[in-house]
Design a protein that fits this description.
Mean pLDDT: 82
CATH class of the largest domain: Alpha Beta
Number of domains: 3
Number of strands: 9
CATH superfamily of the largest domain: P-loop containing nucleotide triphosphate hydrolases
Oligomer: single chain
């Protein structure tokens, strides 16, 4: 390597990071040479990661990224202040010796990041073994990290174009012949937009509290299991009993709060027993809340797949509850989303992961979510193949104070009636398809969803 590297704690080189940032500040046109190599999370020094993000953000908007513009944009950044503020940026630019070597800097920084990730995986595996856990947990943790690490630039793929093309045409032909090659969502409008859930995809379902994201994810799981698909449900928030109460509520159309209280008629109790008997062989496998990190989740799901001979869909409720390492929420969520994406590839299944949204939504007049509302990390948007938001206008209208004037009150009541038992599923990102809004009927107390004829193909309306 061209710069002094520290291996006493985590492998890193502050000098390499300084050289790369200095080169970008001196010549913005060099960014294209490291595109696809360097990411924000590759930097060991958090301040360097933030400087890199600011530089990239300005260049991508066709703005100039210089010492002055970055210093202005990061004027309130406490970490940069501690390093000297604008003067530190001046030193970065002045110390850039060989801008022509920026691609080498990028590859070396990525290699150091990979070493740090591997060391973390080994440390986690060591802890798992010494903790007398199932060795599969340690193995799964290492496998997940290896899958998450990218191939080095220039490394040849082991899959030829001929093999890849043959597999692709075979998949297209299966779909052409009418075979369902993806896992259907169970909702016609969403199936038409997404084509179902596809293997190795990471699907994010996000929403503010009480918007129905857990209900929607469980609906996907129930419909898939009822169609004979084998589903793993990683329940980090609800107990097994709470999940099954929702399943029974959806199938019997009985409010699951009534189920919990036992406030049932004799006829309703017969329905509960009947559904319980019908559903006992449903191929839905629950991973309980104490399994809380990527390695342990991987191990549990791999065991399900081995015992059952297949696994078609995984639901994770929800990703912010997964344990991970990191100095802050951004780093932790970044590690989780990378791990989930790697897990989707390892298990060869679609993974639906629920996510919280930031409170910024509540401060807007139009409370429909946008991608920037994803909480804690831009890596959620980056790693996801599909991002969907749940939005229920009824929730917000029902909490407003009704207007006193007759005309305004009539409009309010009409809007409330029109929104009752309806959900907007906003597909804000789809790597291989269109975005847009699909409206479905829903009843939260019984966890039921149904088709809604009215559809809106324009996002955010």
């Amino acid at each position: 390597m061209n710069a002094e590297t520290s291996f006493q704690t985590d492998p890193h080189s502050i000098e390499l990071e300084q050289q790369l940032l200095g080169a970008l500040l001196v010549n913005n046109d060099l960014l294209h040479r490291i595109s696809g190599i360097t990411r924000r999370d590759h930097f060991f020094e958090p301040v360097h990661a933030d400087i890199f993000a600011h530089i990239v953000g300005r260049i991508e908007k066709d703005h100039i990224a210089t010492v002055n513009t970055i210093a202005s944009g990061m004027a309130a950044h406490e970490g940069l202040k501690e390093l000297g503020g604008g003067q530190y940026l001046v030193r970065l630019a002045g110390a850039s010796i060989m801008s022509s070597g920026i691609a080498d800097y990028a590859r070396d920084i990525e290699a150091l990041w990979q070493r740090r990730m591997l060391l973390r995986a080994l440390e986690g595996a060591k802890d798992a073994v010494l903790g007398d856990n199932d060795p599969e947990v340690a193995k799964a943790g290492i496998e997940a990290v290896l899958m998450a690490l990218p191939e080095r630039d220039g490394q040849e793929s082991s899959v030829s174009a001929l093999k890849a093309m043959t597999e692709t045409v075979r998949s297209i032909n299966r779909a052409y012949s009418g075979e369902q090659v993806s896992v259907p969502t169970g909702l016609g409008a969403l199936d038409r937009r997404l084509g179902g859930f596809w293997k190795q995809n990471l699907v994010i379902v996000a929403g503010r509290p009480s918007m129905g994201k857990s209900a929607l994810a469980l609906e996907f799981a129930i419909k898939a299991a009822d169609a004979g698909r084998f589903v793993g449900f990683v329940s980090l928030e609800m107990s097994n009993t709470e999940l099954m109460e929702r399943v029974i509520g959806a199938k019997t159309r009985i409010d699951y709060e009534k189920l919990r209280r036992g406030d049932l008629t004799e006829d309703e109790m017969r329905k509960v027993v009947g559904i319980a008997q019908e559903s006992q062989d449903m191929p839905l496998f629950i991973v309980p809340p104490h399994v809380r990190d990527i390695a342990a989740i991987h191990s549990a799901l791999k065991t399900v797949k081995k015992r059952q001979g297949r696994l078609d869909l995984v639901v994770v409720d929800y990703l912010q509850l997964i344990r991970s390492r990191g100095n802050n929420a951004n780093e932790r969520v970044s590690e989780i989303t990378r791990g989930l994406k790697a897990l989707a590839k390892l298990l060869d299944v679609p993974i639906i992961a629920l996510s919280q949204l930031s409170r910024a939504v509540e401060g807007r007049d139009n409370k429909r979510p946008v991608l920037s509302d994803l909480r804690d990390s831009g890596s959620i948007e980056q790693d996801a193949d599909v991002v969907m938001f749940c939005y229920r206008e009824e929730y917000y209208l029902a909490r407003e104070h009704p207007p006193e004037k007759d005309g305004a009150r009539a409009d309010y009541e009409a809007a409330l009636a029109a929104s009752r038992n309806k959900m907007e599923i906003i597909t804000a990102k789809q790597r291989m398809g269109s975005i847009g809004t699909d409206r479905v009927g829903c009843h939260m107390p019984t966890n039921r969803f149904w088709e809604n004829e009215e559809q809106d193909n324009f996002y955010g309306i």
